[in-house]
Amino acid sequence: MKSITFAAALALTAVSSPALAQVSTPVPTLAAGHTLLSVNAEGTSTRQPDMAMFSAGVTTQGDTASAALAENSRKMTGVVSALKRAGIADRDIQTNNLNLTPVYAQPKRMPDGSYEDQGRTIIGYQVSNAVTVKQRKLSDYGKVVDALVSAGANEVNGPNFMLTKPEAALDEARTSAMKAARDRAQLYANAAGLRVVGILSISEAGGYRPQAYREIMVTAARADAPPSPPVMGGELETSMTVTVQFELAP
What we know:
The protein is α+β, with helices and mostly antiparallel strands. About 25% of the residues lie in helices and about 35% in strands. The chain contains 3 helices and 9 strands. The chain has helices at about 65-85, 140-150, 165-190, and strands spanning about 15, 35-45, 50-60, 95-105, 120-135, 155-160, 195-205, 215, 235-250. It is elongated.
């Protein structure tokens, strides 16, 4: 559980206090002699991921743009076919990058250590093509990566673990945040010799955030390396922050 943070400036403020003039949110109407308490609280929940996203692609070079594109298309077709044979559905494969760039000659170094100014001479072209893949069966992740490399993929990045349906985790975090807010409000009320008589407003922030991509393979030369260890999904943390305004009374 992460630490709970409270807005000190709004922790316990009487309605008549001049400090309320600095609050941008509307001030609820309170009964005479009652006090406004605003609390920020955070709740979290954890789940094991049930899906991973990663990217896979091919980078090729050729003497001409058309030659580089043709070679890249041939290899990328094999990569996509390998994904499908490994059980990845069409809906889970999406092109995310197709890039064609010129390759320039390196300047020639002269005997005096300077470099000959030949301008930027194009000696070829490089093509990069990649797809984003949703891996819904995590136990097959290693098998899919092996199939990609065998098919000619020389760029594989990931995984990004996630939840296919994060709503339940979000609701659990909301419940945890609200309990923390209510407990803290009761603590403040007891310390001030007051009682909590109601909740005036609730707002929330935060939510589910999938993990960032991590690079797992960059060159096809690693295809001959021993099999990689199993990919461990661990747990994903979902957090939610709520701001709750309570009404306190003597």
